[in-house]
């Protein structure tokens, strides 16, 4: 990926109710918008669901389509397709 114009900017988006209608699949228009946005800034998605459910909504390659993917309310973190952290909820 080419250098981004605003490399210091991180745009985080909630999945349900923001990128998608609650529990629904993302629209092609939203996918295109997110792809274009990623050309300019670092983009991450955050969801309360597990990675399986987020993948059903945003696509199987969600962990590589976005710079960051935080599932299970942020307890599981991926960066550029790599698992970078997990935390157990008390």
UniProtKB/TrEMBL annotation:
It holds the Pfam family PMM. Homodimer. Coiled coil: none annotated. Its cofactor is Mg(2+). Mg(2+) binds at residues 14, 16. The keyword Metal-binding applies. Pathway: Nucleotide-sugar biosynthesis; GDP-alpha-D-mannose biosynthesis; alpha-D-mannose 1-phosphate from D-fructose 6-phosphate: step 2/2. It comes from the Eukaryota. Keywords: Cytoplasm, Isomerase, Magnesium, Metal-binding. One of its GO terms (molecular function) is metal ion binding. Alpha-D-mannose 1-phosphate binds at residue 23. The active site is at 14 (nucleophile), 16 (proton donor/acceptor). It is found in: Cytoplasm. It comes from Oryza sativa subsp. japonica (Rice). SUPFAM superfamilies: HAD-like. One of its GO terms (biological process) is GDP-mannose biosynthetic process. Catalyzes the interconversion of mannose-6-phosphate to mannose-1-phosphate, the precursor for the synthesis of GDP-mannose. GDP-mannose is an essential sugar nucleotide for the synthesis of D-mannose-containing cell wall polysaccharides (galactomannans and glucomannans), glycolipids, glycoproteins and the antioxidant L-ascorbate. This is Phosphomannomutase. Its EC number is 5.4.2.8. It catalyses: alpha-D-mannose 1-phosphate = D-mannose 6-phosphate.
């Amino acid at each position: 990926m080419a250098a981004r114009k605003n490399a210091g900017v991180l745009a985080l988006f909630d999945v349900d109710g923001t990128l998608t209608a609650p529990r629904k699949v993302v629209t092609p228009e939203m996918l295109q918008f997110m792809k274009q946005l990623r050309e300019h800034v670092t983009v991450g998605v955050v969801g309360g669901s597990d990675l399986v459910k987020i993948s059903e909504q945003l696509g199987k390659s969600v962990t590589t389509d976005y710079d960051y993917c935080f599932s299970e309310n942020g307890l599981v973190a991926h960066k550029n397709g790599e698992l970078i952290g997990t935390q157990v909820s008390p």
